[in-house]
Amino acid sequence: MREHVHPSVTHAEEVAANASGENFPVALRVLPERHRRHLTALYCFARLTDDLGDEARDTNADGTSQAAYRLKLLDDFDADVDAIYAGGTPASPVMRAMAQTVRECGVPAGPLRALIQANRQDQQVTRYATYAELAQYCELSANPVGQIVLYIFGVATPERIAASDSICTALQLAEHWQDVAEDLGMGRIYLPAEDLDRFGCTEADLAEPSAGPAVRTLMRFEVDRAAALLDQGAPLVGTLRGAARLSVAGYLGGGRAALAAIRQHQYDVLNGTHKPRKPRLVAELLKTYVTGR
User: Fold this and answer.
1) For the packed helices 213-233 and 242-264, what is the interaxial angle rounded to 10 degrees?
2) Which of 220, 199, 224, 226 is nearest to 265 (CA)?
3) I need a labelling partner for 96 at 20 to 30 A (CA). Which of 155, 187, 268, 269 fits?
């Protein structure tokens, strides 16, 4: 990657060192090394892409040009994807690790490019009028991660990818519902405008220190919507065995635990980011692994 990206690459290496604390690699530490290595490469790629889209700062520019600066970094990152599939050597160490995963697991370029495009979209789109628009964003920002996971385990089929897409859209929604206040602080609202209108909520309501009755009712609806998508994709677990089953059960269980944490706090997503505790994560993982859904 180009020279000005190096600080973000360094950050991604720090992310990898702390991977066990995140929802994404919930079952990572107990998987075989060959899978752990590829999943860590994917995790670092996805996190660095997010960081370039959310946190990268040009210290020599004013705030109005930050989006343009991030778009340039994402273009540079996309050029490293070109290098991978052209048989070249990516400049970024994060992408060099991802190149090994691509070669050894047969990962197509589409999911990598989609994740980068999602972060381009974040520089240009800060509101979603309908749930359909938000779901299309999730097709870029979340679903590719699950698709790559299936390639890593050598179990990608059209049917499994469809089920994985449902789970990953739900996971992205769950993350957005956890981070309503944080996203608003960054100038973004992922709650669809049609849903805000339906439940009588305004953007001003989302800026309050605690959720009022209308916001809580809205969030109950959104949490139930995400839970239904998790259930829709859950049979995927039953089609898998071994490390693949454990890994996907971890993602699915993590999503269910995240939604449970929001429910436990009475859907008040404005007074903090409510994360599930580790015992609940483990319990959901085991339940999902054993039942296969």
Assistant:
1) 170
2) 220
3) 155
What DSSP element (H or E) covers 34? helix 33-54
Side chain identity, residue 136: Q
Cβ neighbour number for residue 50 with a 10 Å cutoff: 17
Q: Per the structure block, which two tokens stand in for 265?
A: 């706090």
**Tens digits of residue pLDDT in 70-105:** 999 999 999 999 999 999 999 999 999 999 999 999
DSSP classification of residue 200: T
Beta strands in 49-164 (DSSP E): none
Question: 217 is written with which tokens?
Answer: 């009712």
Length of the chain: 293
Query: Which residues, other chains included, contact 165 with Cβ-Cβ below 8 Å and sequence gap of 6+?
Result: 139, 143, 146, 147, 233
Cα-based distances in Å from 171 to 15, 176, 200, 233, 235: 20, 9, 25, 11, 16
Q: Are 95 and 74 in contact (CB under 8 A)?
A: no
pTM value surpassing 0.70: yes
